[in-house]
Structures
1.
Amino acid sequence: MNHFEYGPEGLACEGVPLARIAAQVGTPVYVYSRATLERHFTVFRDALTAAGVVDPLIAYAVKANSNVAVLKVLGDLGAGADTVSEGEVRRALAAGIPGDRIVFSGVGKKRGEIAFALQAGVAEINVESEPELNLVAAVAAELGVKAKVAFRVNPDVAAGGHAKIATGKSENKFGVSFAEAARLYANASNHANLEPIGVACHIGSQITDLSPMRQAFTKMRGLVEQLLGEGLHVERLDLGGGLGVPYFDMPAPPSPADFAAMVGEVTQGLPVKLAFEPGRVIAANAGVLVSEVIHVHERPEGKRFLVIDAAMNDLIRPAMYDAFHDIRPLIPRAGEMTYDVVGPICETGDTFTRDRALPPLASGDLVAFMSAGAYGAAMASEYNTRPLAPEVLVDACKFAVIRERPTYEEMLSRDVVPDWV
Ligand code: LLP
């Protein structure tokens, strides 16, 4: 459930007409609903509690939507943060999320990033390979600290909505094998600067079938039992993110309650705390991208292009993953026409959808890309020297710009022409 609904002035976010925001802030613009973010986090947490999961660490995956205001909304509810770069750790800290609720993941953390995370006192560094373990140990020794590490294990299970976002097969770059995990865990336990605290997995994103998750989590349970059986200290099992969301009128994916029930069943009686790294399920349906129609270009042969002022640099998911986003006119209208919806960028990939049936639209009309709160603004770029779309947070009847659209002066000022040019 989300808080984007049609009202007397068209499509609105928590009752605030999106057209009003567009008039004030300009387009394209991302708009997020605080109530929806809070609801999604609460539903996820309460589902786990109901399934008997005690005191989980819910580390929201910052990569999905990393705006500091969004992080603060979630952090204030008790969310932790799953981060994959020093920048993301800094964002989480800036939002007031304490270090001991921050997980630091990723296959290629650099020395400086590891040092920063250790100094921030992160809850766990999810180590993805032996060379990385050695680097963490070396950095921790230099700093004279003991690094809390968890081993990210690749459970060799296929899952995820698209090949580019499946991570759980052994051919993917993520994590160590089960055999490696057991060996590295034991070695690390004897290292003066390492404190292995658990194991982690994340098998993919936009997963709409619980069975690969059940399979992976069952394997992870086996590993925890094996490590405990070897007398090793294990206090946390991190089960990652990946739960899918409905992007349109599709068969409903498993709900957080279904997911939590499965987790409760698989981990029942396991004497460790659980951690989760949900991103999309919290943020996707809490945001939209509002754009204005620039032209309707009809070809005599029949093609009809809706040229809008948002482009692949603002929302890359359709170009990158063939992702489907529902597109709704802000003002509902009867009738149906077929459009290719395209942005102004000079490449054919800048196509949001082909042959989409939409109500008749004209220059100046506003449309919203639904479910754009996750991996939307966070993946945006300035390709074609287009300013990053601003972000707006709505809270009941008020709203605020939470990231300004940069000015052209700001954008150009980052380039430096050497005096020898
Ligand atoms: N934890 C780890 C280690 C991850 O790599 C990811 C996502 C998550 C958690 C959060 O997964 P979620 O709950 O959001 O599925 N850009 C793509 C999605 C990439 C996901 C990458 N990893 C998209 O737009 O669909």
2.
Amino acid sequence: MRPSHLFRGLCLAAGLLLAPLIARAEDGHELWLRYRPVEASAAGAYRASVGAVAPVADTPTLKLARAELERGLAGLLGERRDGGGEILLGTPKSSPRIAALKLPLETAGDEGFRIRTLADGGRPLTVIAANTDVGVLHGVYRYLALIQTRQAVDRLDLLDAPKVRYRLLNHWDNLDRSVERGYAGQSIWDWWRLPDVKDPRYVDYARANASIGINGAVLNNVNAKSDSLTAPYIAKAAALADAFRPYGIKVYLSARFSSPIEIGGLKTADPLDPAVRAFWKAKADEIYKAIPDFGGFLVKANSEGQPGPQDYGRTHADGANMLAQAVGPHGGIVMWRAFVYSHEQPDDRAKQGYSEFKPFDGQFAENVIVQVKNGAIDFQPREPFHPLFGAMPKTNLGMEFQITKEYLGFSTHLAYLGTMWEEVLKADTFAAGRGSTVAKVVDGKLHGCSRTLMAGVANIGSDRNWSGSQFDQANWYAFGRLAWDPEASSEAVARDWAAMTFTPDRRFTGPAVKMMMGSREAVVDYMTPMGLHHLMGRSHHYGPGPWVAGGERADWTSVYYHKADKAGIGFDRTAKGSDAVAQYAPPVAAAFSDLSKVDEKDLLWFHHLPWDYRTRSGRPLWDELVIRYSRGVKAVDGMQATWSDLSPYVDAERHGEVATYLAIQYREAQWWRDASVAYFQSINGLPLPKGEAPPPLSLEAYEAIAFPYAPGI
Ligand code: GCW
């Protein structure tokens, strides 16, 4: 062996031996709750100010709050904390010591907390106090997060409370354990073995959610089966509720509107029929008997083939109010989805939700929340905000985001969605003048509403890493943080997540967060730049399908949305076209309609333009489109380079997994670009801009790519 080889061999062996000490192999199962040791240079200061955790009152939530704090501190700082200080947890009700401190807690509400450091006769004392046990638990997670992200904890006076009341995950999980639009394996709910077998994951799930402030879970798919409302399934849901309860998480169920027929032996589900109303009242009573803190129902009605009140000539308000009356006496709510559209309806699909719901403003019961998707079509990589936000001042209006990436590359593309959600939340509806942001509708400030809701379609499954990919965990995390505070900065959230999930070392978080912040825009570029939308493969929604036409309904095709022909491309939603713009407040409508004002990122959402339309870069539209497609591909190349440079900071297992996924993403970004360019070029016959490579395959070859076994259908 040559000496240099010997040397390299020795280094390799030493590296292998040391590797576990440097970066232990990890699979991502621990999420952002890893509690790895603080580096020696910072640990001393923390040990001095962080003390022993005082005993707590004997309640399930306080006991687990204390256990979590012990576990976190032991991981971060070790068992020995020598400052001689103390950490005191509890509520004024459960702890005379906390009561004696008389900390102002009014604004902490039912779920918030105050963390204050005091000196108790020279000993550092940290108090994590709240009005409720679950508020204390939230405070514990925040306190640990401060250390996890290396912020000082020696002089704290921090009060925080959620700005949104219902912060819910919506699971589109079926009773056979498949997950509609799920890309992280099977459902984590093992319905078959429940209620007897209580998978420890149920508790882990509740813990992860509590750590980011999520307080409810709709267990089953909105495309619901009535079976989930039968006695055996109520018992299964009750077992889950028992596991979640100490973490402050309630269960909710999706209710199939035709259940009175399917499981109630009735001939009708007409919401005004007394027998139907009695069925739902009895059903609610039965559920509350098993689950006293049951949250309520989520309903998808008269949408995509689901039954609903309109089947009986009744309205959405009739249907929602009937259910609201059944759960109301128990404190429950009804979340009624506004995602409705019909292919029999000749009007622009983007207008239909607004047209159907706006007339009912003020007619929904007090405990109904109308749940509105962020955009008017369907969770596309970019949509302008839904025109219902700001348009129903007398109705509780909740936000529905999609955490699972149905339209953004499933779990193999890295796309941080915090930026997308922030973009929507910061959008100004002008409903009550400038500054009437979507966030202010969602947190209830704009219209003085207290039943506020943010729902996220979960991306959780039975994969070890929960979300199908390491970086998709960031979307679960960001959803929780933005539901807690819709005005939070997605960048700050990404930074916290990256620090807690990988390492707080800035040499890592700097580039990693930059990569995350640009990642969704990259997807928009390589899939649907400049306001294009709904151009994915039919039904499975994977990969490009701008050619999709014909079939059962026009509003499930791509040609319906891009309207490309020899002359131009885009959906005219101005007054000359479908006039969808008229559903927005006048200043917003004016800006969207005006070619000199509309943001080019939304251009083809609102306008149909000739291929040679001059864009702001000075380039003709066609050239600009092609350049943006390619820009998206290049961005993924950049992400690969960034990630490769970050290998010193990440354990080999997770680093390797992310790198592999980025390679898939790069290949598929290229495929999206090439297939889209090939298709649109076949329509307009125009040459590519200088320097742009022609697609390597024929259009027919792209069209022939099929996915009969894609997940999530
Ligand atoms: O995005 C579409 C999905 C459907 C989904 C529907 C909805 C649950 O493709 O799978 O059904 O939206 O939100 O109801």
